[in-house]
Structure formats: structure tokens, C-alpha cells
Amino acid sequence: MKALVYGGAGERSWTQVPDAVIRDPRDAVIRVDAVTICGTDLHILGGDVPEVTPGRILGHEAVGTVVETGAAVSRVKDGDRVLASCISACGACRFCREGRYGQCRAGGGWQLGHRLDGVQAEYARIPFADLSTYKLPPRLSSEDAVLLADILPTAYEVGVLNGQVGPGDTVVVIGAGPIGLAAILTARLFSPAHIVAIDKAESRLQAAKNLGADVTLLPERVPLGAVRALTGGLGADVVMEAVGVPEAFEMCQTLVRPGGRIANIGVHGKPATLHLEKLWISDVTITTGLVDTYSTPRLLAMLDGGQLDVSSLVTHRFGLDEFEQAYDVFAQPARTGALKVVLSR
Fold first, then answer.
1. Alpha helices by DSSP H, the chain
2. What is the DSSP annotation of 39-61?
3. What secondary structure does DSSP assign to 199-225, as a single string?
4. Which pLDDT score, from 0 to 100, does residue 269 have?
5. Nearest to 157 by CA among 8, 319, 18, 295
6. pLDDT tens readout for residues 92-103
7. Cα distance between residue 126 and residue 69, in whole Å
């Protein structure tokens, strides 16, 4: 089979690799029908995730059809169309029992495209298949469903729920890429008074408006004044960092009100300054996190019921053998206008 293989910082190739096979009775093998590229994959290619070693198949967001199951798999069978979660869960360790599947200590957590071969391939092995796949309703398109493999639950859990967005809040999202846009979309479920999007790209700010942001700002245009004007001088109730660069995290600290919440979603490859000399007195809560995907069933139900519209998040479509082109488009959003790219059979 062919797959997108990481060759070290800055190196990738769509190339022939050994077929995906069952290695554990709890595994399933899927034929990949739709797959997408994540900003985390760009961080890997930039050398920000040293645990990913050369030779690894990248990717952790896919919809596929089950073609083989291990002897211990009981909830899915050959022919089922499934969402492959970005998080694998053993279901038995302390963290899985607490619903913190991202912290699984028995071979789960973020494994696909990280410590195990991922799903940017013609076929993929999915560990702990009973707990790490979700059968899809017939009417739900693979293109929409694949967005629930990572960006929707990540934005919802690590941004919106960790940030405790509530009715009447002023919410600032720094970074209007796919994760930031998903945070805007799911924050609206809690009726905030204002959603402010900050990004360098005008095309992404327009996408943020389309998804529900009522204020959009370029970072160089002194967003502090605009946010304070919305909040009687206080600052934002919730600020989400959805970029993964030090400057964005430091901006969060200037925009949050006393008693407010900073929810870091971005993947950071460099140290960021925590200004405790200013924040120690302000009762500010800072949260970080890897998605646990406990919300995936609920998000699937909302998507299937028409309560979430994710169709505008996909801007570019490619064939499964066009990974090199898809990466080039996704990595240059200012030039291409790319949000999410989907590759399908």
C-alpha cells in the first residue's frame, strides 16, 4: 500500500510501505475513504514533536471502512463505515476510567501518526478498535464526519469546555485556523455575548465571521483596546489560544479579565512566557490539554441532527494520491485560503 511517510524535519513522501495488518486482537484495519491534514502534522514536519521518528506514517483524522478485525473486537465488523478517532483508548487504565482517554497509559492516547503509524495511507491499523472507532449514520458524509476525528472535539473540549464558556461571556479566539474556527462554532452553543476572532489572514477572519464571530481583528491593530471596549474595560471572560506560538499565548494574558480563563489549545514547540508578575493577583485560570474525545458521540449526534454545520470548514479537495499537493496547499493558507483539506478515494 502507499502512505505519507515522515522522513525527518521538513521531509515527507507519498511512497510504498508494508500493508497495515492486525497486530493485537483488539485491532481493526480500515480502508481509508477520507482523510485530512492537521496543523499538528505541520508542527511534526517543523520538528516540534521529537517523539515522531523518521519512517512514521503521519495522520490521525480519517473515515474508513472496516476490512479486518481482531478476535477481541466486538462492536465493529467488516464493512462498517467508521470514524477513526485521533485518540486511542484502552478503557481500563486509571485515566481511561476517568474519561481522560488522551492520557491513557496502556498503549492509548495520541498514538496514530505519533508513536504508531497513522491514517494518511490507503489502509490503516486502528488500535483498541471497539473504543477508538465510531460507526457513522448512513446520511452523514465522510467529508463532514472526518472533522470530528480531531478538530471539533479538540476545540470543544480543550477550548470551549475547559474555558467554561457561558451565556453572556465575551470570548476571544486567537488564531482562526481550523481549530480556532471550530472553537467559534462550538462556543456559539453556549450563547456568549461576543465572540472575537484574531488572525493575521483576512480570509480566515472572514471565515470566522461566517461561523459566528461578531468582531474580527488583526493582531497588530491593538486588540486590547477593542476587547476592553466590549467589556466595560474589564477584558475577555475567556481567551483561547489556537495557534501554538509564544506571541499568541502572551497575547492571551493581556486580553483576559481578572477572574477570567485562558484555554490553551495550540501545539507549542517553543517556550512561552507566563507573566506571573502580572497574573498572580488576578485570579486567572489557565488550562492546557490534549483532547480526550469523550464528546465525540455527542458531537456526532449534533452533526447528524443538523445542529452543527461544518461544511464551510473544508475548502480544498484532493484524491488520495495527491498528498504532496494537498500539504503544499494546506501549509500556505495566506496564499491558498486553505482551511481544511480533505483527500478521498
1. 39-45, 94-97, 129-132, 142-145, 151-154, 178-187, 202-211, 223-230, 246-255, 276-279, 296-304, 323-330, 333-336
2. HHHHHHHTT--TTSPTTPBP---
3. -S-HHHHHHHHHHT-SEEE-TTS-HHH
4. 86
5. 295
6. 999 999 999 999
7. 9
Place of cell 523518521: 54
Q: How buried is residue 157: exposed, middle or buried, by Cβ count under 10 Å (0-12/13-18/19+)?
A: buried
pLDDT tens by residue, 24-73: 999 999 999 999 999 999 999 999 899 999 999 999 999 999 999 999 99
Compute the distance between CA of residue 239 and CA of residue 174 in angstroms, rounded to an integer: 7
At residue 76's C-alpha, the angle toward residues 73 and 77, to 5°, is 95
CA neighbours closer than 13 Å in the CB half-sphere of residue 40 = 25
Give the residue among 291, 284, 285, 246 at the shortest CA–CA distance from 265.
291
Residue closest to 124 by CA, chosen among 70, 59, 42, 40? 59
Amino acid residing at 132: S
Phi then psi for 309, rounded to 5 degrees? Answer: -115, 105
**Which residue type sits at 161?**
L
Q: Name the strand (E) or helix (H) holding 110.
A: none
Q: State which H helix or E strand residue 18 sits in.
A: none
270, three cell numbers: 517553543
Cα separation, 176 vs 198, whole angstroms = 7
Query: How many residues are given for the chain?
Result: 345
